[in-house]
Amino acid sequence: MKKINLLISIVLLMAGNLSTGSYAQENIRAMIKKCENMEVIETDIVRQYSPIIKKFNRSTTLIKLTTSPALEKQWEEAFRQDGEKAIHAVEQKKDGKVNMLYRFESSTYSYTKSNDVINIIESIETKRRVGVYSFFINVVPDNYPYPLIGFINTAVGSHQGLQAGFVNTTLVDFMGAQIGFVNSTFDNNTGLQAGFVNTTFNEIKGLQAGFVNTAGFGIQHVSQLGFVNMMRKEIHGAQIGFVNMTGKSVQGGQIGFLNISSGKVKGAQIGFVNYADSITGAPIGFLSIVKKGGYRAIEVSVNEFYPVNLSFKIGVPILYTFIQGSYNSDFNSQFAAGAGMGSLIPLGKRKRFYFNPEISNMNTISRDNYLQIQSFAGNFRYQILPNLSIAAGPSVIHSYFHDGKSPYKPVYSIVNYEINDKSRLFVGARAALTVIF
Hints:
The protein is mostly beta strands.
């Protein structure tokens, strides 16, 4: 058998908690005993004394050895057998490297194999970990049974219940309510985070309410209420704020000034600017960009007041917005600009014919002879080619001239009704040619 080089180093450090007497890691302990009977190359002992409990309360053993197929198999089998009883387990294999970490009630074991070297680290807590609770700075051990109320609250492990203070931090899992200026959970959070900055690095279930809310790598079942809401992965819930961003899909909705989803949105986006990879609901806003299944078009049209109109349309077929520029050489103020929204409603299964209602508001580009035009158009659209369509239909227009009786006359109209000196009602018709891209 290939000679095994072994280095065992025992370091006693400060801090520790929890009960002993558990045999959840008996197979790993048996392998450590086996290695201790082998030839020792070097042994180093370093001690640190705890001024709080006036004792040594933690031992850490490092085992480093060159591997053989038989020994490697024994170590990995021992870790896997005991890993079934671990409260936290991580296993990774990549490019010939093996990493395993198992956390038990009062001990932690890690196994690393790289090339021809195996490293095993055993960390055992032998005494109860002592916390600091002063109602100003509170630092407590894993699963501390009482609420944390103070200026700075830190749970060195998991915690349940309440954390109320200026800065609240949980290094593992938290369940309950974190209420403060800065709230952080480094693993999973279930409950409420309410503060100026709320952060959960892994999964969160519940509610984040604050100025900046962020969550991490798991699927999130949470609603976020804040000025800036950020999610790295998928969110099941709602994001409501000025800026809402998610790195994956949204099942729920986003409501804010700027809404961004790098994945699919199942629900609605309501904001000034909306972006989604794809969406099953409807984006409602001034500018809505949908990468897959979106609607983008340029349209040339003629209407009752302006024989030349150019529009840019964007959104999804069921609800899009557009901006429009218009020109009439006979008007004192020849140019006008406006915006509106519309919808494409299929008529029939072939999706060649559509009912295409649109509402819009136009204004002349001039401080003098200022005219406002509100209109509703009930167009019918035919898809000639996949990227080309034509539309025509009736319209109803209301015009309002600010400076008395309007000098603006429609190019054509079916009905021309004077409401008063400044307002008139028209019924007309429109036609358009649209290029979809």
